[in-house]
Amino acid sequence: MTDEGKGEVISNRTDFSILAETEDYIVVDKPAPLLVHPSKPSPIPTLWDELRGLLAFDLANGAKLSIINRLDRETSGVVLVAKHTEAARDFSIAMQEQRTVKEYQALVHGWPEEDAFTVDAPLCRRGEIEPSPIWLKRMVHPSGQPSITYFQVSERRRIGDRRFSLIDVRPVTGRMHQIRVHLSHAGHPIVGDKIYRDESCYLRFIDQGWTRELHKKLLLTRHALHASRLTVQPRDGDELAWIAPLPSDLTWTHLAAQEALVSHR
What we know:
Elements: E1 17-21, E2 25-30, H1 47-54, H2 56-60, E3 66-67, E4 76-82, H3 85-96, E5 100-109, E6 116-120, E7 123-125, E8 138-140, E9 148-159, E10 162-171, H4 178-185, H5 199-208, H6 212-218, E11 225-232, E12 240-243, H7 252-263
Parallel strand pairs: 4-11
Antiparallel strand pairs: 1-2, 2-4, 3-4, 5-10, 5-11, 6-9, 7-8, 9-10, 11-12
Protein backbone atom coordinates (compact mmCIF):
# COMPACT_ATOMS: atom_id res chain seq x y z
CA MET A 1 0.00 0.00 0.00
CA THR A 2 1.16 3.52 -0.76
CA ASP A 3 0.14 7.01 0.34
CA GLU A 4 0.59 8.47 -3.13
CA GLY A 5 -0.29 7.23 -6.58
CA LYS A 6 -2.03 3.94 -7.08
CA GLY A 7 -2.72 1.61 -4.17
CA GLU A 8 -3.66 -2.05 -4.06
CA VAL A 9 -6.52 -3.58 -6.03
CA ILE A 10 -8.88 -5.54 -3.78
CA SER A 11 -9.58 -8.75 -5.68
CA ASN A 12 -12.93 -10.50 -5.78
CA ARG A 13 -13.29 -13.66 -3.73
CA THR A 14 -15.14 -16.62 -5.24
CA ASP A 15 -14.60 -19.13 -2.42
CA PHE A 16 -18.25 -19.36 -1.36
CA SER A 17 -19.48 -22.34 0.63
CA ILE A 18 -22.74 -24.26 0.25
CA LEU A 19 -24.99 -24.13 3.33
CA ALA A 20 -27.83 -26.25 1.95
CA GLU A 21 -29.05 -27.67 -1.35
CA THR A 22 -32.21 -29.44 -2.54
CA GLU A 23 -33.92 -29.93 -5.90
CA ASP A 24 -35.67 -26.58 -5.32
CA TYR A 25 -32.91 -24.30 -4.08
CA ILE A 26 -29.28 -23.81 -3.12
CA VAL A 27 -28.14 -21.60 -0.23
CA VAL A 28 -24.59 -20.28 -0.14
CA ASP A 29 -22.41 -18.27 2.21
CA LYS A 30 -21.14 -15.47 -0.04
CA PRO A 31 -17.67 -14.08 0.76
CA ALA A 32 -16.77 -10.43 0.36
CA PRO A 33 -15.97 -8.76 -1.88
CA LEU A 34 -18.00 -10.58 -4.51
CA LEU A 35 -20.70 -9.10 -6.71
CA VAL A 36 -23.87 -11.20 -6.65
CA HIS A 37 -25.01 -10.46 -10.20
CA PRO A 38 -23.26 -8.69 -13.10
CA SER A 39 -24.61 -5.18 -13.65
CA LYS A 40 -22.86 -4.89 -17.03
CA PRO A 41 -20.64 -7.11 -19.20
CA SER A 42 -17.35 -7.65 -17.37
CA PRO A 43 -14.61 -10.28 -17.05
CA ILE A 44 -14.77 -9.93 -13.24
CA PRO A 45 -16.37 -13.10 -11.79
CA THR A 46 -19.67 -12.85 -9.91
CA LEU A 47 -21.61 -15.23 -7.68
CA TRP A 48 -24.05 -15.68 -10.57
CA ASP A 49 -21.25 -16.81 -12.89
CA GLU A 50 -19.85 -19.21 -10.31
CA LEU A 51 -23.27 -20.73 -9.60
CA ARG A 52 -23.97 -21.25 -13.29
CA GLY A 53 -20.71 -23.14 -13.54
CA LEU A 54 -21.41 -25.18 -10.42
CA LEU A 55 -24.95 -26.04 -11.52
CA ALA A 56 -24.20 -26.55 -15.22
CA PHE A 57 -25.74 -30.03 -15.18
CA ASP A 58 -28.96 -28.73 -13.59
CA LEU A 59 -29.16 -25.90 -16.11
CA ALA A 60 -28.64 -28.31 -19.00
CA ASN A 61 -31.61 -30.25 -17.69
CA GLY A 62 -34.04 -27.35 -17.44
CA ALA A 63 -33.11 -25.55 -14.22
CA LYS A 64 -33.63 -21.77 -14.12
CA LEU A 65 -31.70 -19.95 -11.40
CA SER A 66 -33.21 -16.98 -9.56
CA ILE A 67 -31.39 -15.11 -6.81
CA ILE A 68 -33.94 -14.43 -4.08
CA ASN A 69 -32.02 -12.10 -1.76
CA ARG A 70 -29.20 -9.94 -3.08
CA LEU A 71 -26.32 -8.63 -1.03
CA ASP A 72 -23.97 -5.76 -1.73
CA ARG A 73 -20.55 -6.68 -3.13
CA GLU A 74 -18.90 -6.01 0.23
CA THR A 75 -21.58 -7.73 2.35
CA SER A 76 -20.97 -11.39 3.14
CA GLY A 77 -23.41 -14.08 4.22
CA VAL A 78 -26.52 -16.05 3.32
CA VAL A 79 -27.78 -15.94 -0.27
CA LEU A 80 -30.79 -18.02 -1.33
CA VAL A 81 -31.06 -19.11 -4.96
CA ALA A 82 -34.09 -20.87 -6.41
CA LYS A 83 -33.44 -23.56 -9.01
CA HIS A 84 -36.71 -23.34 -10.92
CA THR A 85 -39.56 -20.94 -11.63
CA GLU A 86 -42.04 -22.45 -9.17
CA ALA A 87 -39.58 -22.26 -6.27
CA ALA A 88 -38.67 -18.68 -7.21
CA ARG A 89 -42.35 -17.73 -7.20
CA ASP A 90 -42.96 -19.36 -3.80
CA PHE A 91 -39.97 -17.62 -2.20
CA SER A 92 -40.90 -14.28 -3.76
CA ILE A 93 -44.46 -14.55 -2.43
CA ALA A 94 -43.10 -15.46 1.02
CA MET A 95 -41.05 -12.25 0.98
CA GLN A 96 -44.03 -10.17 -0.16
CA GLU A 97 -46.19 -11.67 2.61
CA GLN A 98 -43.43 -11.02 5.18
CA ARG A 99 -42.91 -14.71 5.89
CA THR A 100 -39.15 -14.20 5.73
CA VAL A 101 -36.79 -12.79 8.34
CA LYS A 102 -33.34 -11.46 7.47
CA GLU A 103 -30.79 -11.08 10.25
CA TYR A 104 -27.39 -9.44 10.04
CA GLN A 105 -24.37 -8.69 12.18
CA ALA A 106 -22.43 -5.45 11.94
CA LEU A 107 -19.25 -4.10 13.51
CA VAL A 108 -19.72 -0.39 14.12
CA HIS A 109 -17.84 2.59 15.50
CA GLY A 110 -18.74 3.68 19.02
CA TRP A 111 -21.01 2.42 21.79
CA PRO A 112 -24.73 3.11 21.34
CA GLU A 113 -26.42 4.64 24.38
CA GLU A 114 -29.04 1.85 24.49
CA ASP A 115 -28.50 -1.87 24.04
CA ALA A 116 -31.66 -2.10 21.93
CA PHE A 117 -32.82 0.66 19.60
CA THR A 118 -34.89 1.19 16.46
CA VAL A 119 -34.26 3.52 13.55
CA ASP A 120 -37.45 4.53 11.77
CA ALA A 121 -36.28 6.94 9.07
CA PRO A 122 -37.36 7.19 5.40
CA LEU A 123 -34.70 6.71 2.74
CA CYS A 124 -34.19 8.03 -0.77
CA ARG A 125 -31.36 8.43 -3.26
CA ARG A 126 -29.34 11.48 -2.26
CA GLY A 127 -29.07 12.71 -5.86
CA GLU A 128 -32.85 13.23 -5.92
CA ILE A 129 -32.52 15.82 -3.15
CA GLU A 130 -29.11 17.42 -3.58
CA PRO A 131 -25.96 17.06 -5.69
CA SER A 132 -24.07 13.85 -4.93
CA PRO A 133 -20.78 12.65 -6.41
CA ILE A 134 -21.88 9.07 -5.71
CA TRP A 135 -24.95 8.19 -7.78
CA LEU A 136 -26.14 5.25 -5.65
CA LYS A 137 -25.69 6.92 -2.24
CA ARG A 138 -28.82 6.98 -0.07
CA MET A 139 -29.84 9.41 2.65
CA VAL A 140 -32.49 9.91 5.31
CA HIS A 141 -35.14 12.35 4.04
CA PRO A 142 -38.85 12.93 4.80
CA SER A 143 -39.75 12.36 1.14
CA GLY A 144 -38.12 8.92 1.09
CA GLN A 145 -39.61 5.45 1.38
CA PRO A 146 -40.60 4.23 4.87
CA SER A 147 -37.67 2.29 6.36
CA ILE A 148 -37.38 0.59 9.75
CA THR A 149 -34.47 -1.35 11.28
CA TYR A 150 -34.16 -3.01 14.70
CA PHE A 151 -30.75 -3.10 16.41
CA GLN A 152 -29.48 -5.03 19.42
CA VAL A 153 -25.97 -4.53 20.80
CA SER A 154 -24.30 -7.93 21.20
CA GLU A 155 -20.90 -6.84 22.48
CA ARG A 156 -18.89 -3.70 23.17
CA ARG A 157 -15.11 -3.46 23.08
CA ARG A 158 -12.38 -0.87 23.31
CA ILE A 159 -9.46 -1.46 20.95
CA GLY A 160 -6.62 0.97 21.37
CA ASP A 161 -8.24 4.34 21.91
CA ARG A 162 -11.32 3.51 19.82
CA ARG A 163 -14.67 2.04 20.82
CA PHE A 164 -16.47 -0.57 18.71
CA SER A 165 -19.69 -2.57 18.99
CA LEU A 166 -20.94 -5.81 17.45
CA ILE A 167 -24.62 -5.35 16.67
CA ASP A 168 -27.36 -7.81 15.71
CA VAL A 169 -29.58 -6.28 13.04
CA ARG A 170 -33.07 -7.06 11.77
CA PRO A 171 -34.39 -4.86 8.95
CA VAL A 172 -38.19 -4.67 8.74
CA THR A 173 -38.11 -3.09 5.29
CA GLY A 174 -35.59 -3.84 2.57
CA ARG A 175 -34.34 -0.59 1.02
CA MET A 176 -30.99 -0.30 -0.73
CA HIS A 177 -28.18 0.33 1.80
CA GLN A 178 -30.81 0.55 4.55
CA ILE A 179 -28.73 -0.90 7.39
CA ARG A 180 -25.66 1.10 6.44
CA VAL A 181 -27.55 4.40 6.22
CA HIS A 182 -29.54 3.82 9.41
CA LEU A 183 -26.42 3.02 11.43
CA SER A 184 -24.63 6.08 10.06
CA HIS A 185 -27.74 8.16 10.83
CA ALA A 186 -27.66 6.82 14.40
CA GLY A 187 -24.08 7.99 14.78
CA HIS A 188 -22.49 4.55 14.54
CA PRO A 189 -21.27 3.94 10.98
CA ILE A 190 -20.17 0.45 10.01
CA VAL A 191 -16.44 -0.16 10.22
CA GLY A 192 -14.91 -0.07 6.74
CA ASP A 193 -17.91 1.62 5.07
CA LYS A 194 -16.34 3.75 2.36
CA ILE A 195 -19.57 5.58 1.50
CA TYR A 196 -21.35 6.18 4.80
CA ARG A 197 -18.31 6.59 7.07
CA ASP A 198 -16.83 9.27 4.80
CA GLU A 199 -17.75 9.40 1.12
CA SER A 200 -14.34 10.85 0.24
CA CYS A 201 -12.94 7.41 1.13
CA TYR A 202 -15.05 5.83 -1.59
CA LEU A 203 -13.99 8.42 -4.16
CA ARG A 204 -10.31 7.96 -3.29
CA PHE A 205 -10.68 4.17 -3.38
CA ILE A 206 -12.21 4.30 -6.88
CA ASP A 207 -9.42 6.60 -8.07
CA GLN A 208 -6.40 5.16 -6.26
CA GLY A 209 -7.25 1.71 -4.90
CA TRP A 210 -6.52 0.62 -1.32
CA THR A 211 -3.92 2.92 0.26
CA ARG A 212 -2.32 3.25 3.68
CA GLU A 213 -4.35 6.39 4.26
CA LEU A 214 -7.59 4.49 3.66
CA HIS A 215 -6.41 1.58 5.80
CA LYS A 216 -5.73 3.94 8.70
CA LYS A 217 -9.16 5.52 8.49
CA LEU A 218 -11.32 2.51 7.59
CA LEU A 219 -9.31 -0.38 9.15
CA LEU A 220 -11.04 -2.99 6.97
CA THR A 221 -10.94 -3.35 3.20
CA ARG A 222 -14.71 -3.91 3.12
CA HIS A 223 -17.64 -2.81 5.23
CA ALA A 224 -18.23 -5.01 8.27
CA LEU A 225 -21.75 -6.22 7.48
CA HIS A 226 -22.70 -9.90 7.38
CA ALA A 227 -26.01 -11.58 6.52
CA SER A 228 -25.94 -14.12 9.34
CA ARG A 229 -29.34 -15.80 9.11
CA LEU A 230 -32.26 -16.11 6.69
CA THR A 231 -35.56 -17.68 7.75
CA VAL A 232 -38.47 -18.58 5.49
CA GLN A 233 -41.83 -19.86 6.67
CA PRO A 234 -43.53 -21.77 3.81
CA ARG A 235 -47.33 -21.76 3.67
CA ASP A 236 -47.15 -25.50 4.22
CA GLY A 237 -44.37 -27.30 6.03
CA ASP A 238 -41.68 -26.54 8.56
CA GLU A 239 -39.74 -23.32 8.82
CA LEU A 240 -36.56 -23.11 6.76
CA ALA A 241 -33.55 -21.40 8.31
CA TRP A 242 -29.93 -21.04 7.20
CA ILE A 243 -27.05 -19.61 9.22
CA ALA A 244 -23.68 -18.29 8.04
CA PRO A 245 -21.07 -17.88 10.80
CA LEU A 246 -19.29 -14.55 11.21
CA PRO A 247 -16.29 -14.62 8.83
CA SER A 248 -12.75 -14.32 10.16
CA ASP A 249 -12.22 -10.81 8.75
CA LEU A 250 -15.04 -9.49 10.96
CA THR A 251 -13.81 -10.95 14.25
CA TRP A 252 -12.48 -8.93 17.17
CA THR A 253 -9.09 -10.58 16.67
CA HIS A 254 -8.81 -9.36 13.09
CA LEU A 255 -10.08 -5.89 13.96
CA ALA A 256 -7.55 -5.60 16.80
CA ALA A 257 -4.77 -6.71 14.46
CA GLN A 258 -5.70 -4.02 11.92
CA GLU A 259 -5.90 -1.36 14.63
CA ALA A 260 -2.45 -2.35 15.92
CA LEU A 261 -1.07 -2.32 12.38
CA VAL A 262 -2.22 1.19 11.52
CA SER A 263 -1.33 2.62 14.94
CA HIS A 264 2.32 1.57 14.55
CA ARG A 265 2.82 3.18 11.16
